[in-house]
Amino acid sequence: MNTDGSVDSTVKINDSTTNGPVLNNNDFWGRSIANIGDLNNDGVNDIVVGAAGDDRCANNDNNCWDSGAIHIMFMNTDGSVDSTVEINDSTTNGPVIIATDNFGNSIENIGDLNGDGVNEIAVGAQKDDGSGTGRGAVYIMHMNTDGSIDSTVEINSSTTNGPTLSDEDYFGSSIANIGDLDGNGVDDIAVGAQRDDMDENGDDDGGTNRGALHILFLK
Prior knowledge:
mainly beta; four-stranded antiparallel sheet; globular
């Protein structure tokens, strides 16, 4: 971008890009994008891109439609791609996801949560069934500098101190880093649940698909 908001140049990245993502029809790559900072310490910020419709399975059993995936993309200064790492259900220390979870429908950089010098990411899976049909989940992923995963923590309605959800709430439909709200030295996040029906008393009569926002104070 130029200082007046005009565009100086554009580089398109897709599955024909050298060192770019490997994609199939209906992967919906680009559904979400986040700047994750300079993950590999080469002086260039890197990005993560969601493909919520990705169908690839750990065992290639063809029963993982729309399970989802994300791609860590190590960038060059000219907008070309140096390398790409795909994270899906077969990734070591990665998420446990199944068909229709839509992992990668939302992504956010949540800073260096564990103090190891590498930014972590939060990834939404709005149709995750782990705690009830379509209730949704957010995966906190502790990253390594090469784009691999050190560890993953799933947050859903069964998580201690986590959100109260009902079926089809779609928790994880959006995620935002809201900074260190409570002053404990760790950034907190806001997570959308676009189909939440619950009222202030926790009853499912708050109105059809009105939605809700959950503020999560992280450790």
